[in-house]
Amino acid sequence: MSGRSDALPTRPVSASRVEMTKLVLPPHANALGNIFGGEVMSWIDMCTAISAQRHARTSVVTASIDAVNFLLPIKLGHIVVLKSQVNAVFTTSMECGVTVWSEHPHTGELRHAVKAYTTFVSVDEYGRPRPVARLLLERDEDRRRESEARARRASRVALREQLRAAAR
Predict the structure, then answer these.
(1) Where exactly are the structural domains of the chain?
(2) Residue 74 pairs with which residues in a beta bridge?
(3) Is residue 124 within 8 Å of residue 103, measured between CB atoms?
(4) Superfamily (CATH H level) for 10-167
(5) Which of 44, 63, 126, 136 is 20 to 30 Å from 23 at the Cα level?
(6) Alpha-carbon distance values, 124 to 20, 54, 111, 132 (Å)
């Protein structure tokens, strides 16, 4: 990681893992009895922000939420389980991955409902970006996620440059 200070701490992926549980209540659901996508996205933002903050041990701000894939509807009365972790660390930002599961309240059956990626920037007390702790990849799964996150970051950066060029 060029340009990174060796003085920065290193934290393992496992230290950033979060599991959050919610219950789908009537205000969360549409007329079909399915959770609103925006509600799920709000929960994703909160869950992954906690992962990012656990890793950085600073305040963090959302830079992007992308690749949100709704795989199946989550029903009223179901339990929602969100699982997130930091996938990769860059200079001042980090990508978090999250999976969202729908748990049937009577059978306990878990179904993979949503998958998404978020990017957070670590900020100081003045809101300025600050360097992020290095990430210790503990398992082969962590190394795979980190490699895929770097590819997604390259795509995000290229898209951002295209959008900036188009706006000029």
Answers:
(1) 10-167
(2) none
(3) no
(4) Hotdog Thioesterase (3.10.129.10)
(5) 63
(6) 26, 15, 39, 11
